[in-house]
Amino acid sequence: MKKEITIFFTAMLFFTRIPCPKWIDHSSSNMQKSTKYFSLVGIIVGFFGALTYWSSSYILPQNIAILLSYIATIWITGAFHEDGFADVCDGFGGGWTKDKILAIMKDSLVGTYGIVGLICLFTLKFFTLSEINSQLLIVLIAGHSVSRCIASFILYLYPYARTDESSKSKAVASSFKLSYLIVNIIIGILPLLFFKTYWVFLALIPPFLAMLLLGRFFNKWIGGQTGDCVGATQQISEVVFYLSLLGLWKFI
């Protein structure tokens, strides 16, 4: 039990800015195993965003409450996955070979492709959430857990693309086991059980298909995935999940 608690806190330490016990470290072994709690971290992040929305919606308009909720999740994760999305936009937008793409993604600077991509992502996410008036609190939690569950498939299906040992995400983005994927799936879809209809599970199909297309694209150009690819997949899957719910509720 203590070992699993250590692994969970390692996941929290890596994927969020939530304070963890001082005895938690970044050991390679625990980092690899921490990916099994990717979806659980998503539930925690989503709960924090939902709590921010719920508390601020009592005194502020809904649109502003949604913005504050989104800002809260960015803050609590340190824009971890948003940074990965921007790096992927820059890398695949400006690179034409595997080495060039990986070099651009590793660069800490954000280029035009990354900025434009983030603007489009944030705008689409904001307007989509603004149109969802039913069970928004659960939607916010489910969006973060489901998208991380979907992104975990990238870790399982594709090999780690970088050959250098300096990447801080190598321990997380490689050696992902089937058992870790199963744990992520079980935890990731739990929030969906709180919706009023089980038709909501149909909303998993579009983000899953988006993940397959992204995985195929990554594999074609760089021969696998990196931590940035996983972060980009999480962000895109989250938006596609919200869009799927919005479209689904028009027919239910």
UniProtKB/TrEMBL annotation:
This protein's pathway reads: Cofactor biosynthesis; adenosylcobalamin biosynthesis; adenosylcobalamin from cob(II)yrinate a,c-diamide: step 7/7
- Note the superkingdom of the native organism: Bacteria
Broad class of where this protein is predominantly found:
membrane
| Protein localization | Cell membrane
UniProt keyword list:
Cell membrane, Cobalamin biosynthesis, Magnesium, Membrane, Transferase, Transmembrane, Transmembrane helix
| Enzyme class (EC, first level) | transferase
Question: What is catalyzed by this enzyme?
Answer: alpha-ribazole 5'-phosphate + adenosylcob(III)inamide-GDP = adenosylcob(III)alamin 5'-phosphate + GMP + H(+); alpha-ribazole + adenosylcob(III)inamide-GDP = adenosylcob(III)alamin + GMP + H(+)
One annotated GO molecular function is: adenosylcobinamide-GDP ribazoletransferase activity
Assigned EC number? 2.7.8.26
Q: What biological-process GO terms show up in the record?
A: cobalamin biosynthetic process
> What GO CC annotations are associated with the protein?
plasma membrane
What membrane topology is annotated for this entry?
Multi-pass membrane protein
- Transmembrane region(s): 37-56, 63-81, 101-124, 136-158, 178-195, 200-218
Co-factor(s): Mg(2+)
What's the family? Answer: Belongs to the CobS family.
Q: What does this protein do?
A: Joins adenosylcobinamide-GDP and alpha-ribazole to generate adenosylcobalamin (Ado-cobalamin). Also synthesizes adenosylcobalamin 5'-phosphate from adenosylcobinamide-GDP and alpha-ribazole 5'-phosphate.
In terms of PANTHER family, this protein maps to:
ADENOSYLCOBINAMIDE-GDP RIBAZOLETRANSFERASE (PTHR34148)
- Its name, as the record gives it, is Adenosylcobinamide-GDP ribazoletransferase
